[in-house]
Task: inverse folding
């Protein structure tokens, strides 16, 4: 395998893992939405909802920043492998969403 081809595989894997992290966040958001249906909002709910949304977005930004910092945008192959394993494990242990089992094909 040529050096350029190996580099391209690493770049594509790193980018794919960003999508995997989004998948994780989407599923967590769906489960969180189920919790919100019974959340004891106060009369100030119009201010509470944006705060909850902001919290979810900030969590996503933190996760992506940490991922990119630790893996050095995929250039640190050992840390990338560790993140790959963590992401794969998490994807395979996600609970069902709305009663539908989550099946994600990761290689």
Result:
């Amino acid at each position: 395998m040529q050096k350029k081809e190996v580099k391209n595989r690493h770049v594509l894997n790193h980018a794919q893992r960003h999508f995997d992290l989004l998948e994780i966040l989407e599923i967590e958001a769906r489960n969180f939405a189920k919790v919100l249906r019974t959340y004891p909002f106060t009369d100030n709910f119009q201010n509470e909802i944006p705060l909850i949304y902001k919290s979810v977005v900030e969590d996503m930004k933190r996760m992506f920043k940490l991922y990119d910092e630790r893996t050095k945008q995929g250039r640190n192959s050992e840390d990338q492998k560790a993140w790959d394993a963590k992401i794969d494990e998490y994807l395979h242990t996600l609970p069902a969403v709305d009663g539908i089992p989550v099946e994600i094909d990761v290689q």
